[in-house]
Amino acid sequence: MAGQGRIGQVTPHRVARSGQLTNHLRVTVLVAATTLLALWLGAGHADAQSFTEFPLTANSHPLGIASGPDGNLWFVEANANQIGRITPTGTTTEFPIPTPNSLPVDAVAGPDGNIWFVEFDGNQIGRITPTGAITEFSIPTAASKPQAITAGPDGNLWFAEGADNGNNIARITPTGTFTEFSIPTAQSLPRDITTGPDGNLWFVEDHGNKVGRITPTGIITEFRLPTANSSPQFITAGADGNLWFTESSASNVGRIVPGAPNTITEVRISATATFPAGITAGPDGNLWFTVGGAALGGSGNDISRITPTGTITEFPLPSPSSLPTTITAGPDGNIWATESAAAAKIARLTVPASPLPLCATTPASGCRLAQIGASSVEIRDDVDDTKDQFKWSWAKGAATDVNAFKDPVNGSARYSVCLYDASGNNQPLMEMDVPPHGTCHTVPCWKATGTSGFSYRISKAGTLTGITTVKLGAGAAGAAKVQARGRGANLPTPTLGLTLPVIVQLMIGDGTTECWQTTYSTATRNDAARFSAKGP
Predict the structure, then answer these.
(1) Cα 174 from chain centroid?
(2) By 3-state DSSP, what share of the chain in percent is helix, strand and coil, each rounded to 5?
(3) pLDDT digits (tens, 9 = 90+) for 86-107
(4) Are the CB atoms for 238 and 196 separated by under 8 Å?
(5) What is the pLDDT of residues 479-534, one digit of tens each?
(6) What pTM was estimated for this model as a whole?
(7) Is 9 helix (H, G, I), strand (E, B) or coil?
(8) Residue 361: exposed, middle, or buried by beta-carbon count in 10 A (0-12, 13-18, 19+)?
(9) Domains with residue ranges and CATH for the chain
(10) Whose CA is closest to 436, among 510, 357, 490, 491?
């Protein structure tokens, strides 16, 4: 299941038995990775008061975790060779697997009301009833190294086979019939698999550096990731209709759009080695993922949240270097994760309230205004979405002190560009978030421009909402200026032919809010392909 796992540190004999020791993320060990190509970061920090940790048997090495049909959570213990069950209140029960040393690594709730799991060394798919009765099914390909399992849209279970002699995506019916489908890229090392919103299965290839899609009939298509050697590890379907995945070596979270699978956006978590792992869709509409770099010579020991627009908040775990690995949304509305370090725990996080969007359903009042005719806006809606454009310039504006920009280089404020019109459509028509600080292609995304302003620049792929550049300039009345530009398929381009007046605002908030605004009462062009105007 998406967000279930295969990483951690165990004893050398276990690594040797798996036969998978390299310098990449593996079933049993995560060795420091090398490539740290950066995109962008919008991370804030929260305290750990919402966490509860439940201890397990030391060194049991808990990995994949899933919500069960019985209202409990089910997980695998790789070193203890057990399937575990934990109630929402923390009572655990363990069930030994019949095959010794089977190395279970992942679990998922099946369509038949049972829990299904994969045995990496046992080369079997296991089924356990809610009462603990276990049945095992041998995989046709010997030593196939099954990595992950998910419930498919067709009523079957689907799993990834990571061995070089396997390199398959496979299907098992609830009655135990197998079918295997070869991945086109040789030695691709498929890591995780999930059901997408489009009725297909989606998987990630660690060595292939690709995201793959397989139809229920077995047709496979692969999509190469922008960052080389990114080591994608886990994948899940988000509430926004997209697929989200983690890239361990690159410290990225990625998003791929099912309807336009070549549209891949990568979100930089940190400039240091965080080794993101499990990822799951939360009950709040956001994505939640684990960061365990502190236990692996890097940084981070968190459960983190990323919004569909790219804002990241980190929730540090109470136990240091606990190696959080896999994650799922529980039946109780909380987030649950496995901590795979020697202390071996299950963590429960009470989902905190998401911050309210800076762009409200109606424009903010009291914003700084520009002089008459000194501002412009242009939106282009191309047949090719990659050529969509947004440009807004607020010039000769009201007096603005540099502190009003809340220091995006070092601060934690949120930044959003909002566009409204006078139609009866849902407002705002455009909401484009820009994260603070961060690293873009090895250099800071934001930088100070002297002592009076700041600028933001990212690649033409833009943020998750399409913004590529922002310029903030403080000054006396008539001298302040703000600019924002965006382009590409990530832009939330509305259907053009807008209803005047059109209002564009920049909102900056960190508990208190600052805003800049232009109202456009007339347009120089307003049709289905372009909107352009000068104002106010």
Answers:
(1) 30
(2) 5, 45, 50
(3) 999 999 999 999 999 999 999 9
(4) no
(5) 999 999 999 888 999 999 999 999 999 999 988 999 999 999 999 999 999 999 99
(6) 0.83
(7) coil
(8) exposed
(9) 12-35+57-277 (2.130.10.10), 368-535 (no CATH)
(10) 510
